[in-house]
Design brief:
The complex is a heterodimer of chains A (about 200) and B (about 170).
Chain A (H helix, E strand, L loop, with lengths): L1 H20 L6 E11 L2 H4 L3 E15 L3 E13 L1 E3 L8 E19 L4 E20 L8 E21 L4 E8 L2 E2 L4 E2 L2 E9 L1
Antiparallel strand pairs in A: 1-2, 1-11, 2-3, 3-5, 4-5, 5-6, 6-7, 7-8, 8-11, 9-10
Chain B lengths: L2 H20 L5 H4 L7 E3 L2 E5 L3 E3 L1 E3 L6 E6 L4 E3 L4 E4 L4 E9 L6 E9 L37 E6 L5 E6 L6
Parallel strand pairs in B: 2-9
Antiparallel strand pairs in B: 1-4, 3-7, 5-8, 6-7, 8-9, 10-11
The chains are: A mainly beta (about 200), B alpha+beta (about 170).
Chain lengths: ~200, ~170
């Protein structure tokens, strides 16, 4: 989490510099922050909620109410602890899940405020784990830590509401997978998007 | 809000609520599947003090594991899973965690046996020394038991593979 906060000023500086340079085709640059919720049991084994997501996006508007919104999101979920073997063989498994999503939303403006669309992302899931096993209760413990990564596709609906000309609220649902066993990693999120 | 917007907003809000709080929280049972994917072979093993034994982690996706023995006084592991027993007999647990994702864990049991009692030397018995030489294949198998009266005879087959047979020869040859 500390790393996320440290990168915020850099992201802001990069965004304002890009905005000053002007996006091609009349695009507008913005940033977003979201609360993210693991929405599938397989993801909830390793991630607790709510998670926090931050990112950048650009928005290009076209005739007929069509919009294209490339975006980058970094999400960090709350850590989770499991005791898979129970009391017979004490084991403590701490996990923390992160995701990096690079993709784009296609939105269709329903009116001046509301837009509905679909988002497609390529997600890099990361699970940092610390596995502590105590095979014999009360005896010594084995502790091994490591981080595993997987790239997976994400897909889901997006609904946005323009609150002010610069501020937009968004809810989205993303269907994805993660892990070596390709478990479901669906997420739901509520976001605020700020247009620079 | 227009009627069209309301038609999509409410299902979306219901979907979000369901995702956030409507489903059951995960139980430990589901998490325990992480410990059923990987296994160790052999699952139960015995080894004499100071001797080595190769353990193998059966990992569906390949790759290496981190090996541990608990308590640590039981012996030591190489990164390849070769276990060398210490000089402390006892029962020990073997733990393997997959390096690709350390959430995957497997357990095995190892018993370190005390050293066998020293063999009694009797002059009227010829102990098989197993010191046969000149093997065409380089592999001579000696199945004699220490202290047993045996005579070793050799024969060579047409494939030039040397075989050693052990047995009692009453003629003394």
């Amino acid at each position: 989490m500390a790393g996320l906060w440290r990168t915020l000023p850099l992201v802001y500086l990069a965004a304002t510099a890009l905005q000053a340079a002007g996006l091609p085709g009349g695009g507008q640059l913005g940033a977003q922050a979201a609360l993210v919720f693991p929405a599938s049991p397989d993801l909830r084994t390793t991630a607790d909620w709510p998670g926090l997501s931050l990112g950048l996006h650009g928005t290009w508007s076209f005739a007929g109410g069509h919009e294209l919104r490339p975006r980058l999101d970094v999400a960090l979920f709350q850590g989770r602890n499991q005791t898979p073997w129970g009391a017979a063989t004490p084991q403590s498994l701490d996990t923390r899940v992160r995701s990096l999503a690079l993709g784009a939303d296609y939105l269709h403006r329903l009116d001046d405020r509301w837009a509905l669309g679909v988002g497609v992302q390529e997600l890099r899931w990361s699970v940092a784990s610390t596995n502590r096993v105590t095979p014999t209760p009360g005896a010594a413990t084995v502790t091994v830590s490591g981080t595993a990564h997987w790239w997976r596709l994400g897909l889901g609906p997006v609904l946005t509401c323009r609150v002010t000309p610069r501020l937009e609220a968004e809810v989205r649902y993303a269907i994805s997978h993660y892990g070596q066993e390709n478990q479901l990693a669906n997420t739901a999120s509520c976001a605020l998007l700020w247009r620079f | 809000m227009t009627h069209a917007a309301a038609r999509v907003l409410f299902p979306a809000a219901a979907l979000l609520l369901l995702a956030c709080g409507g489903a059951d929280r995960v139980t430990g049972d589901r998490a325990a599947t992480l410990n059923q994917v990987m296994t160790i072979s052999p699952a139960v093993a015995s080894v004499s003090v100071g001797q080595s034994l190769q353990f193998t982690a059966q990992i569906p996706w390949g790759g290496a594991a981190t090996w541990s023995v608990l308590p640590a006084t039981g012996g030591s592991f190489t990164s390849g899973g070769l276990f060398t027993a210490s000089t402390t007999p006892g029962s020990y647990r073997i733990v393997a965690m997959w390096n690709g994702d350390v959430r995957y864990t497997a357990l095995a049991q190892a018993t370190v046996l005390p050293p066998p009692p020293p063999a009694v030397s009797r002059p009227d018995l010829a102990a098989a020394s197993g010191s046969q030489q000149g093997s065409a294949s380089g592999q001579v198998q000696n199945a004699a038991v220490v202290g047993e009266a045996v005579v070793a005879t050799k024969s060579a087959d047409v494939n030039a593979t040397e075989q050693v047979r052990h047995g009692y020869d009453p003629s003394g040859h």
